[in-house]
Amino acid sequence: MLIRQATVNGTVADVRVGEVVEAIAAKLVPLPGEQVLEAEGGELLPGLHDHHMHLYASAAAHSSLDCHVGAVEPELGRQHLARRIAAYPGLGWIRGINYHEQQLGELDRWMLDDLCSHRPLRIQHRSGKVWVCNTLALSELGFDRGGNEDGVEIDAQGRLTGRVVRNDPLMAQRLQQIGESTDPDIGFLSRELARFGIVGVTDTSASNTLASADNFNHLHQQGVLLQRVEVMGADDLDVGYLKILLDEDRLPPLDRLVQRINRARNKGRNVAFHCVTHLELVFALAALDEAEPPTRGFDRVEHGAMVNDDMAQRLAQLAVPVITQPGFLYAKGDQYLQDLSAAEQDDLYRYRGLLDRGVSVIASSDGPYGPINPWQVVSSAVNRATSSGALVTPWEQVVPEEALAGYLTSSAELTMRRSFQELKAITVGKAADLCLLKGKWSDLRHNPEKVTVRATVIGGSVVFDSASG
Predict the structure, then answer these.
(1) Tell me: the pLDDT tens digits for 18-36?
(2) pTM, whole model, 2 decimals?
(3) Phi, psi for 46 (deg, rounded to 5)
(4) What domains are there in the chain, each with its CATH number?
């Protein structure tokens, strides 16, 4: 394929690609039958990689009921949600997402019964860590028949509360047993990611197993999943990061966690810690102090939602990158400003302060819990503005190139500090995974949220072309 008249490495040139970039010149003559993509001066960048996303949850979110009701009193929020549930199409299951207790109050089965008792209803907390089921859903899933399944919450009277904590595999298993499909439209999501210029994704779901990795490979080979996918997950994986979920209210014994890390080390795996509170980060770094060091590569901290200066210094010493999500500032920032103290806001999703202290910071989406559009994520890192326009710790702002750099960095190089010019360079022999913008980056960088992708190329094949509709 010939990409004609693109802005490449600062000049306008033609680029011929197969599986790799084959030639770059001021003018190349199309070969007989060769596909030609007219760039019209648009910037040609390496394709983007989202280093923290949950593919299946992101795909499922498209057909789910949004339970975000805005900054209202809980009772008014429940009334808003009741109307949405009543208007939800169909007769069977309702899958809700994005609830937050500050808006709706703490949900349980009885509250959901008041909202909807005639259809099975399950609603996921916006963090992804809790599902809440109404009584009909509990019955259909068989939870009312007893058992001591991990994460299925019981109150002091021995009654099911409807809450299932940190056990998505159990929910999926029970749903499959009753014939309720848990297979969302991955193809739709993949095409949406391609529309944003994303050519690769790291699926960071802690429940990923060998079967999950095989499934992603199968979907990719079928052409359903266009992006290249890297997988982290559970202990039975032989490669990829071991994802360790830390919740400060149920931290594991430190010695057992260290043993778990060491078992992963024996497989040559590194670890990725889910850390959204200060205590979780302290605990993760304490475990790394006790565990065997990596034999190769590096460990990761996912989210790093709360990082003070002392923790930043320690992360820099360990060369542990923080895979963060500035998009949360846009999507949830107004709630953060309402809920968090000034001191907590100072440590919230830091960027500039971490970079200045030598920490490698990588922007990502955490889709579906944060916006999957990388250009919105970049804009959030640059502006640190909420959806209402309020600013969150503006001294943590970074320039667009610093935010976009993470999307242009390979997973193996997250700890490397490379210039933006080096990261965006297109060279002969480089994989033909490319993102062509409508316009030059130098003109678009001032409003990254308005960036439009002209075309996306993976392995030399066009997987998205805005000109074709």
Answers:
(1) 999 999 999 999 999 999 9
(2) 0.89
(3) -60, 150
(4) 64-177 (3.10.310.70), 241-404 (3.20.20.140)
